[in-house]
Amino acid sequence: MADKPVVVVGAGPAGLCAAIELKKAGAPVVLLDENDKPGGQLFKQIHKFFGSREHKAGTRGFDIGTGLLDESLRLGIDVRLKTEVVGVDPGLRVWAVEDRGRSYLLEASRLVIATGATENALSFPGWTLPGVMTAGCAQTLVNVYRVLPGKRVLIIGSGNVGVIVGYQLMQAGAEVVGVVEAAPTLGGYGVHTAKLARAGVPFHVRTTVARAEGGESLERATIVGLDDSFKPLPGTERTLEVDTICLAVGLTPSVELPSLAGCATTYVPELGGRMPLHDEYMRSSVEEVYVVGDTAGVEEASTAMEEGRLAGIHAAWSLGYLDDAAMEAGAAETRRRLDALRQGVFGKKRFDAKSRVLEESHNR
Amino acid sequence: MNVPERTLKTKGAPSLGELEAAGMLPGLEDLKARACLCIECVEEIPCNPCETSCPRGAIRVGSPITNLPALDRDKCTACGLCIPACPGIAITIKRVEGEKATIRFPWEYLPRPEAGDEVRMVDRLGRVVCPGRVTGVNEAARNDRTAVVTAEFASEHVLSVVSMQRGPR
């Protein structure tokens, strides 16, 4: 048993932190990621993070990513890139496919699933035209591949993802011609929306995209006002010349692997929809399987890192690599930092939602 | 008292009235007396680099870190270290000297402005308010790639100006 490694799937902020805590405790750990570079979405984040000093506030996301990578290298963690996990069986055998060529089974003592979330799409006439993409896609293009997807951008959705990506597209030289939001009020942090507002970007609340048009690719978008029941208001259509539409309409936890592993799920709208249940140590309904980060309910990179640490500490303890006192102290400290991130007008909603998840997990 | 127009959650930026109601902005008399920190952060988000960046302990967030920052103007020396530290790009320093106002504001766009540049100062909704002139650009390493730009403009616009218009790249 002791020889089997803990397998961590997903080398984003949550998975990296879980693997780091496990390795620090002396547990054998294998970290798998389908990409050719670890870090998950951290390397796309060129803005300074919120939080406090202990959450690396004020540090740009990619610098936080570099710090975690350096630490994982220093600790000698077995990181296997270009490795997709396509299956898990009840005996905790993990089916990995390396470089789309070699397939093998890994027997795990514990499994930590940190596979993140998937961006939601929005369908409307013309949504398949080249130029219509998710905000995360535009962010990858501009910040990872350094390709500007377009010059005139319309953002659909005013949550933090939409407005952060809008700001970054302007930093890269594009114009954001507008942000539309179906709700009556904007979703993202006011300090984020204010960056766009002072750059002259118009926000349109109670508005959605009606259609996108163009020949070979996107050339214009028509937006339309919405009534109180989100129905289009006749006579409020406006056409904007754009070559890019970024869809920033939320994310959904990637629950494929937890489902395969037999983890019970629940539906929590505030955390992105269907997600695996977990307890206060991030343990799913299957005792040996942990779920962390956006997979365990969509939040932020800073909360993902803390959840990863929590699971890593508990998994190490469950295998005998930490004593009770060290585990409890580490868990309490991590939870304190997590709670600090789940306060205020924005965090409270997530705190309450997470509390419901814990309660449901205990009542099973 | 009139309820101020609330624009933060509809137009993306707070109105002057919203900021004044939150008690966050210096008054004209303060601005004439000395350089004043303007923290435009009116939502409870988990964030405190303004507090930890201040060598004088003039900004207090405390616990929980979702508290709004509270400024002790008597302790603030307007050193400006908090300007690039704020992840929200929400802090400026303004001052009025006769007909001339000075603003120090964070700037994360390219190309970087240079001292002597003639620019257009904008308000919170990006509307051009008046012409301005850049007098300095601080790109110290500790700013971590957030430039701090100093610009001068006509002092009658000091309450509405927050930044400058972005030029073509």
How are the secondary structure elements laid out?
The complex is a heterodimer of chains A (364) and B (169).
Chain A: E1 6-9, H1 13-25, E2 29-32, H2 61-75, E3 78-80, E4 83-88, E5 93-98, E6 102-107, E7 110-113, E8 117-119, E9 132-134, H3 135-143, E10 152-156, H4 160-171, E11 175-181, H5 190-197, E12 203-205, E13 207-213, E14 220-225, E15 238-241, E16 244-247, E17 251-253, H6 256-260, E18 265-268, E19 273-276, E20 289-291, H7 301-318, H8 324-341, H9 344-363
Parallel strand pairs in A: 1-2, 1-7, 2-3, 7-20, 9-16, 10-11, 10-16, 11-12
Antiparallel strand pairs in A: 4-5, 5-6, 8-17, 13-14, 14-15, 18-19
Helix pairs in contact in A: 1-2, 1-7, 3-4, 4-5, 7-8
Chain B: H1 8-11, H2 16-21, H3 28-33, E1 36-39, H4 49-53, E2 59-60, E3 70-71, H5 82-85, E4 91-97, E5 100-107, E6 118-122, E7 128-138, E8 147-154, E9 163-164
Oligomer: heterodimer
User: Low-confidence parts of chain A, pLDDT < 50 over ≥5 residues?
Assistant: none
Order of helices and strands of chain A: EHEHEEEEEEEHEHEHEEEEEEHEEEHHH
Within the largest sheet of chain B, what's the order of strands?
A: 1-4-5-8-7-6-9
Name the helicity range of chain A.
Answer: 25-40%
Structural class of chain A: alpha/beta
Structural domain tally of chain B: 1
> What class, by secondary structure content of chain B?
alpha+beta
Number of strands of chain B: 9
What is the arithmetic mean of pLDDT of chain B?
95
Estimate the strand proportion of chain B.
25-35%
Gap between N and C termini of chain B, in Å? 45 Å
Q: Total number of helical segments of chain B?
A: 5
Which second-level CATH architecture of the largest domain in chain A applies?
A: 3-Layer(bba) Sandwich
Give me the CATH superfamily of the largest domain in chain A. FAD/NAD(P)-binding domain
Number of helices of chain A: 9
Largest interface between protein chains, with number of residues from each side: A-B, 45 and 45 residues
